[in-house]
User: Fold this.
Amino acid sequence: MKRLWYQAEAAGIVFPVSKTTTGTAHPSTPAATGSGPVPAIRHGAVLGPLGLFTVLLGGALPLIDFFIVNVALPAIDSDLAAGPAVLELVVAGYGVAYAVLLVVGGRLGDTAGRRRLFLIGMAAFGLTSLACGLAPGAWTLVGARVAQGAAAALMLPQVLATIQATTQGARRARAMSLYGATAGLSMVLGQILGGVLVAADVAGSGWRSVFLVNVPVVVLGLVLAVRAVPETRSERPASVDVPGTLLLALALVSLLLPLTEGRATGWPLWTWVSLGVFPFAAAAFCFAEHRADRLGRSPLVPPSLLRLRSLRRGLVMVVPFSIGFSGFMFVIAVALQQGLRMGPVAAGLALAPMAVAFFAASLAGPRLVGRFGSRVITAGGVLQGVGVALILLAVQLGRPDLGLAELAPGVAVAGLGQGLQLPVLIRLMLSDVPADRAGVGSGVMSTTQQSALAVGVATLGSLFLTLVPSMGTRDALAVTLLVQLGLVALTALLSLRLPRVMG
Assistant:
């Protein structure tokens, strides 16, 4: 993370502030986003290197915690006698609360102040992490994880919104690239860190350390945020859309909860009823948002945002990418520990080549985008597909005691491909979002990504765990990798529809 800070400083994120006070961008300043007047960066609202480091730290924490529990689940089960259904809820409770409240968190930041919501969300994240680490029982842990997901949803949208509101032009592009690098790296490092912490058993804390480690990081983040993160808010704040919020929550819960709990609970009637509710809830949400827009109100997800081609097509692509990414991360953690009998450290370190390759690719991405535009994303998809195919060959053709050396080439190539996709895709999706809608725009993007991450764990995880009893770990893993390969091919094809030139 410190290296990301140095990269930002080298990129020159600090820049002069326009002296205009009219509420529109200075004529000499490149128009950043959207059509119509663009709010100027207010005097003092400048995100320097320390501020960028701080918001990136806040952006990393929620993503790390989505994945950090994957390698800790066996230890949690052993200590708390949780059982499969409750273990699913430890993962799902966080993911569902996080996804449901992200857009609301973005809207609140636009209205009440993004720095204020960032501080509130980070403080709540620290307290709920402490509650997770001290949980005396499995259901207490589930409740604390739900609260932790809600806190993350308050904090994360403010990261991208603050970057959008306090940077412009090339500096914004560099900051967005650093955010994308941080996001992808956090998802990989989460599992590596989880394995190391569980095995280290610091002061006999065992699995609890994967949550308690957040507390000192949050304290540091709060101190830095007070000092270095400027306050920004929308020039045209809008009230919270209560009907839209409730309908979006109903739609996401009705989809994500049965998918994550269905296999572990044996697919009871309520799971099918809930899945049946989803399309109606989603349709009602779309109708309510369009109606609010026609009546001149403030919809939770303004339809005008989805008319932005870069955002709309990027959202379509991020769904299969995130489903495949999270499904792979969950399945590989379970397969290596429970099927191939690796310890938590070895299971985590198996992904180290992916982290290194992802970081290298994400740093090279901005230069490549300058030459090749969004086709960098397509090239990344091809490389990721090659990497997944190499992992599949290692699983099928490798020796019985499959080890880190056999997995390393495929994992590294897959990480290289992912590093060329995710940071560039995030930058592309938000490139045309108006600055005064930065919070809701980042909330929509993060909600889509987070929902897809949860669906990936639920669907590919359920597929793998269902096949293991009849096929064995290796063959079940091979089938799951084939499905992921199909998702990678789909993302590569969808990338061809992205705008070629990026702002």
Remarks:
- The chain has a mean pLDDT of 81.
- Residues 241-299 form one domain.
- The radius of gyration is 22 Å.
